[in-house]
Amino acid sequence: MLNPNQLIMTEPKQRLLSLDFFRGLTVAAMILVNNPGSWGHIYAPLEHAEWNGCTPTDLIFPFFLWIVGVSIAFAMSSNKADPSTHQKTIIKAAKRGIILYLLGFFLAIFGKIISALTTESTILEAFQTVRLLGVLQRIGIVFIISSVIFIKFSNKTIFKTLIVILAVYWALMTFVPVPGVGYPNMEKETNLAAWIDRGILTEAHTWASSKTWDPEGVLSTLPAIGTCLFGILVGVWMRRKDVDNPTKVAWLFTTGITAVILGLLWDLQFPINKSLWTSSYVLYAGGLAAVALALCYWIIDVQGYKKFTTPFVVYGVNAITVFFLAGLMPRVLNLIQVTKADGTKTGLLVLFYETCYTPFFSPINASLVWAITYVLGFYVLLYFMYKKNIIIKV
Fold it and tell me: Are 328 and 54 in contact (CB under 8 A)?
């Protein structure tokens, strides 16, 4: 994922090493789960839930959006306090959000354009079938909207907005009959969010693995904004200078555990579901993020144990680079077709995996070792950039 501090207007005057560590850990985990050696051989915790439910992998994206919210609060508070800077701040946020969207769009269309150049298909056909939404696109959209809300609304109004978002989304998904189906439901292809995706995005521009719905779809972006607002509210509290550290930690734990409990209770009626980004999922994942930050804050910023943080801080400061390259590299290397001994052709990256990993490990362990190698390989690049103070920002 991207570095939330790369999405902000200015460097925060008050910086938490624990937040940098948490962000880097989240990004490294994203690279790990996004790059198995084989999608057919993955340990269960490194897979997404089939539909309802939540695995550790399902927590990574909401953790990141939540961290974006915390970072917004730390970075933009001085801008918020000065009305004369509001317009400039919002314009900058919009520009950066658009760049994020375009980066995601580039990753989505890159392979299609190369295919069009090497086959009888056309570039126009590539644009006619490209996925319009995705992880980077959602981050960009959520960042813009959440920044505007933070700058323009009071903290109390932000809290009320979060509650309204969760309640409205719940009502839409559970009470509004789905056209063509006749009743509200939470099934993959017949829920309201899927119907809206097909209507607005069309099946040609949704997630290629489904074609009928998108896990980063139109309607589910609404509660994703709620996840970011949750982080903003936590960031506002953590910036307070009239509260001592033990109180901040206790408040974070209490808020997190309360949100987790509420999410689990709501799950009984509105199931925790990442693909739909349900309201219960917002509370559950956001609550766990608060608990995680509380632990990191207490250990790193309060107790002063900082030596172990470097690897993940290295991953965090250039997160935009590692996320983009991690997505681009397989696309590029697998365009290079190599002829195997049996005469068949395969991508260079696939050949490397089949030659250097699968002969020496069981299928599932080969897949895991490949993913770990991927993370460590990018760490070498990022550590070099870190030591040279090379930070690529949007």
Answer: no
pLDDT at residue 389 greater than cutoff 50: yes
How many whole angstroms separate alpha carbon 377 and alpha carbon 385? 13
Rounded-to-integer distance, Cα 200 and Cα 193, Å: 11
**Residue 109: left (phi > 0), alpha (psi -120 to 50), or beta?**
alpha
The DSSP 8-state label assigned to residue 178 in this structure reads P
Angle among Cα 246, 252, 253 to the nearest 5 degrees reads: 90
Average pLDDT (205-218) is 90
CA distance 106 to 382: 22
The predicted structure's pLDDT at residue 384: 92
Residues found in the chain: 394
Chain Cα centroid distance, residue 75: 19
d(CA 15, CA 20): 9
The dihedral built from the CA positions of residue 106, 35, 139 and 236, taken in this order, carries a sign that is negative
pLDDT band at 231 (very low <50, low <70, confident <90, very high): very high
Kindly report, residue by residue over 277-304, the tens digit of the pLDDT: 999 999 999 999 999 999 999 999 999 9
For 362, the token pair is: 């069981």
Which pair of tokens denotes residue 75? 């970075």
CA distance 85 to 152: 11
Mean pLDDT of 168-196: 95
With tokens 């949007």, the residue in question is: 394
